[in-house]
């Protein structure tokens, strides 16, 4: 337990461990990388000796030489919403397997990513940064990154967009393109098949690319089928907004025979309002479709039909982008596409 | 955007920024600490110049001098379970406000925290590490920490425990003591008040301190009131286990007139099984109480009566422990206590 109090004045070096274990300096490094190939017995022996000598491969020191911190910054507005927490969970596992640790940065609740926080993040000199364009714009984030090329989650719309907004300077960033068209088309076809004619769209948070892309895509899909335009119900992705939105739609507005929610959590709020407050039957009186397919969507009380984003595929794509970019820092913008599909459960039928 | 590709060969120093801004070296450091007091105009001017000179206060470099990495490691089995995600969310906000970033480490799903992962974590040299004793035992974790004193979440039981298990060596770690007695006593009193005589306990994951402490505390509380022993229903904190547990209890076993679940999520599964599969009315036929008071517990489909752990108080206590420990690395074990209380909703009455 030497060095537990403030650390030993003189740190053990990898060379000292290599000598003690009678292995190469490289073997010592490999022993400390969970991902590097090494005979289990050899790794165990090296780690045991390293421990006895209280050696730690200080990444702070190594970072100065290799310019690799093995830190991946993830900028999120909120860790506790189901989708974000499930994505961070899967991403952390995947990054750990590649020898990276996840560094969490929370944006302010008003999503105004202030420059102090960006400068603060920059201080950790992450190897890569994953962000949602709603939280911080690429040209602003890039100004605050020393060398990391940010990865943005982009939601593709008809006509297409690279995530940049009019008038924004060209900056280098990599992209995950979530193609929502396929899954949403299946959803609209299902509703049409059940003869739904009056479809309401329960919005997500305003100014969110995901919200904007889902609304535009739904409008385009309904137009193609001659279903007119969706009834727009304000929302913010939350359970409570979904709940309140339904009370307004059915008590003040004209109601609807189907509700397409911008995410699953707000669909839960809509379902509960329809059943408990409005005494309507789902799916008999009103059909409900969500978006994401979070773990809670299979819960018996909701059993929600929803458009699934393949979380595993999305996480694998993000990790591929990070590794590709670290291999080729100079490469032009990289991108990967993630598809969506409809998962049919009990709220339509 | 200089240095965006691989970083500029020669880094700008804080002194260069101080000279350019005509301020002290200390003012430059303060400008980059979101928490440090500094006139907004002054901070803005320094950050603007730092940006123009593409200066970044490299914590990797500073860490070697100050031996502070400003990283707080959080070891969790799983980020996406509601309670953990809500705690990590609040903790990340609180730590950011103090100038720390949250470094996530996920344990293996079998909770066997393997030594490679610990050695890997040690490489990041965190200033502090927060862990749950189920994932890694104090004496093992401490061997892998260079200087950080770990903080453990401890669940107090009658008779008391400092979180150490029989035969484990004495090691220095700080502690959050969650006192479950008060809230659980209120829960048992409420059930007794409604004349419940046959109370089932839906278990959490075996070998979890939280599970062990909740079961023992419930047994002690029921004994005191002459309510006999709870019917033990196996579980693992998950929705699905709660759901399956009720089917076994009522279809194979003798049933119960009240169910106390080890956490809210498994209580949701129990509620859905009781209502949808077993066609029982809650609370008329069976009363249900959970533990945690996660955000989902107020959802209308569940509207769960539960024992609340004050998340904000718990997070504030953790941050206090980190700051106290960094001030006094040599201090003997520190601890803070977090209380619990019953939140009454619709599943008892």
From TrEMBL, chains A, B:
Residues annotated as domain HTH lacI-type: 11-81
CDD domains per record: HTH_LacI, PBP1_LacI-like
UniProt entry keywords in alphabetical sequence: DNA-binding, Transcription, Transcription regulation
One Pfam family named in its UniProt record: LacI
Keyword Transcription regulation (UniProt): yes
InterPro entries xrefs: HTH_LacI, LacI/GalR-like_sensor, Lambda_DNA-bd_dom_sf, Peripla_BP_I
Name of protein: Catabolite control protein A
């Amino acid at each position: 337990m030497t060095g537990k109090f403030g650390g030993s004045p003189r740190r053990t070096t990898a060379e000292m461990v290599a000598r003690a274990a009678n292995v190469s300096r490289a073997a010592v490094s490999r022993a400390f990388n969970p991902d590097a190939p090494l005979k289990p017995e050899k790794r165990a022996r090296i780690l045991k000796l390293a421990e006895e000598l209280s050696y730690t491969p200080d990444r702070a020191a190594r970072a100065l030489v290799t310019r690799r911190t093995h830190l991946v910054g993830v900028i999120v507005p909120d860790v506790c919403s189901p989708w974000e927490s499930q994505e961070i969970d899967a991403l952390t596992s995947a990054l750990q397997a590649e020898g990276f640790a996840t560094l969490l940065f929370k944006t302010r609740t008003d999503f105004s990513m202030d420059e102090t926080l960006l400068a603060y993040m920059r201080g950790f000199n992450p190897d890569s940064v994953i962000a949602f364009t709603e939280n911080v714009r690429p040209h602003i984030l890039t100004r605050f990154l020393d060398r990391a090329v940010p990865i943005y989650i982009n939601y593709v719309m008809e006509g297409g967009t690279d995530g940049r907004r009019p008038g924004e300077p060209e900056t280098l960033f990599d992209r995950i393109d979530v193609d929502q068209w396929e899954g949403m088309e299946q959803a609209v076809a299902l509703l049409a098949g059940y003869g739904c004619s009056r479809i309401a769209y329960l919005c997500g948070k305003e100014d969110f690319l995901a919200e904007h892309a889902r609304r535009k895509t739904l409008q385009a899909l309904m137009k193609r089928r001659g279903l007119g335009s969706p009834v727009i119900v304000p929302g913010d992705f939350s359970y409570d907004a979904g709940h309140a939105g339904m009370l307004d739609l059915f008590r003040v507005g004209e109601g609807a025979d189907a509700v397409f929610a911008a995410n699953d959590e707000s669909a839960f709020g809509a379902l509960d309002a329809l059943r408990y407050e409005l005494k309507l039957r789902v799916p008999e009186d009103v059909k409900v479709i969500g978006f994401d397919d979070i773990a809670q969507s299979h819960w018996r009380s909701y059993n929600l039909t929803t458009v699934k984003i393949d979380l595993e595929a999305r996480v694998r794509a993000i990790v591929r982008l990070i590794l590709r970019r670290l291999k080729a820092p100079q490469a032009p913008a990289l991108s990967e596409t993630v598809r969506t599909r409809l998962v049919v459960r009990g709220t339509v039928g």
